[in-house]
Amino acid sequence: MLAAEVLALTTIYDAYPLAEALPVLRCAGPIVGLGVVFLTTLLLSARLRPRVLRVPLEAPRGGVLVAALVAHAGAFALLFPAIRALLATPDAPRLLFVSGLFLALVGSAAAVALRPASWGALLRARRQDLGAAFVVAFAAWGAGLLAEELWYGLADVTLVLVVVGLGLVASGRIVTEAEARMVGLDDFLVEIAPVCSGMEGLGLIAVLTLAWLVVRRRELRFPQALLLVPLGLVAVYAANVVRIVALILLGARVDPEVALGGFHSKAGWLFFCLIAFALLALAERSSFFVASREEEGELEYPAAPYLAPLLAWMGTAMGTGLFAAGIDRLYGFRLVVAALVLARFRPTLPLRRAAPAPGAIGLGLVTFALWFLLHPEPPAEDVEALRAGFDALSPFEASGWLLVRVVGSVLVVPLVEELAFRGFLLRRLVAADFLAVPLTTRRALPVLLSSLAFGLTHQSVVAGTVAGVLFAYAQSARGRTEDAIVAHAVANAAVAAAVLFADQWWLWS
Q1: What CA–CA distance (Å, rounded) separates 506 from 462?
Q2: Would you call 197 helix, strand, or coil by DSSP?
């Protein structure tokens, strides 16, 4: 609920102008980050380090629940005019009022979730985990900021390595201006500022590996386990050089908008996450670093056939999005990867062949109509960028891109999303043993929450949530996820038709 509300607020209002007028707002990022650490630690510690609570966890009921919900709705409704007034006149009294409303929003949400006694019991039981998590979070944040200062000492070395890398993989005139921290190829020149230098990753990987050494100290082999720290630092630094070389190559040889758009904004954190996961996965599986490992039998994950296709699709989209400018020219890779994962789980996919229900087709058309009405039209420049990216393709490329785009949206997306959101999540919100929950279930809260999660993965949360509710109804009518897939496919086919035959490109933006 909070995620959807904050997303709605941040979609409508931009905080950057306020940060210029009220510098204190620059602390909002770390505060939100620590809030994420707080909630994540509570959830993970409850799962990974279970303890017996002295007070059972209880949710509020009756009048207390109604009062908390009314207070929450009131705080959320007041935030819209309050933020609008703060944007118009950024001053301290209005900022305090908005801050108070945010506290009321979070506090009332907490009151909806648990009784005060239960919150106290949960916090007391998790105090050590919370303390450790906050120490690591503060250390990572501070180390990241300090590492940015390393750029001034390592800039010359980095620029030399970038020039060497460019010389190995590209032909052309390499340009450097060491004093201005600029480097480029031919006419494409970039200035590397400390905040964009990638040095922050050195501090983050150092804290991550040190924290892992502390947590796993009883199972590790020392001193060789200490090698993970310099290994992580070298890997992150090398990846940063590769990132800068790749950015310059993209800008000089492919498309400057691709380089300075998706690649510039996503490559750094994507490389860091890959290195962090790979480094610790290698350490966990290596007898050189780990002294003793528990023997693991063949693990079964009942949720895998439902979730793996969607995760593969989204992960591939993150990678291809690095090179997107207007349109994602590598969209076809999503289809290939998702198809391979679907083929891997084909024997266990919970799908049967049967004629689609007429009602599912009708629900798909209704969903398209509501989507068309509820989905806000994006900024004109975004639509123009999408259309310009398509117009820049050759006729052969344009035909191929349209083909894979339609196949993906009509055949693949409905399959992977309905398996995950209706086949799994809706039933998982009813019971942990989701396979025992019938597909005919229509329990209001699981339907609403799973539909909200579905809406959060789309640009329009409202339109996506409404569509999720309709697809859930399609599934429950006959107890078949296939009907939800059909309804979803019909809606997406109607969207594709509107784009191709009515020039409504904003529906694909």
Answers
A1: 17
A2: coil
Query: Could you tell me which residues are beta bridge partners of residue 89?
Result: none
**Cα dist. 27→30, 36, 103, 436, 457 in Å?**
6, 15, 16, 46, 27
CB contact at 8 A, 428 and 419:
no
**Cα 150 vs. chain centroid, distance in angstroms?**
29
For the question of whether the overall pTM of this predicted structure is more than 0.70, the answer is no
Across the chain, what does the average pLDDT equal?
Answer: 81
Residue 105 parent element (H or E): helix 92-113
Please tell me the distance from the alpha carbon of residue 458 to that of residue 421, in angstroms, as a whole number: 13
Contact status, residue 367 vs residue 470, Cβ threshold 8 Å: yes
CB atoms within 10 A of CB 402: 15
Q: Helices in 250-379 by DSSP H: which ranges? A: 256-258, 264-284, 304-320, 331-344, 358-374
**SS3 letters for 30-70?**
HHHHHHHHHHHHHHHHHHHCCCCCCCCCCCCCHHHHHHHHH
Reported confidence tier of residue 18, pLDDT bands at 50, 70, 90:
low
